[in-house]
Specification:
By secondary structure, the protein is an all-alpha fold. The chain has helices spanning about 10-25, 30-60.
Amino acid sequence: MAAKQKSFEDRLNALEELVRRMEAGGQTLDATLKDYEAGMKLAADLNKDLDAAEKKMLELKAGKLAPMEDAP
């Protein structure tokens, strides 16, 4: 069974926590590199989600897509 992906907001909070940890200092080089790598992956995933949302909004605005039926 595939794990459910965390929400955009949860992933953004995780990225912010990684940044806070790195800015605070006091970590080993290895720990900092791991945080940096995890942060870069999160940032790329978040950017991809933002790009997809922007594309969908532009398509909705242009009338190319029907609005979602069960949107929260």
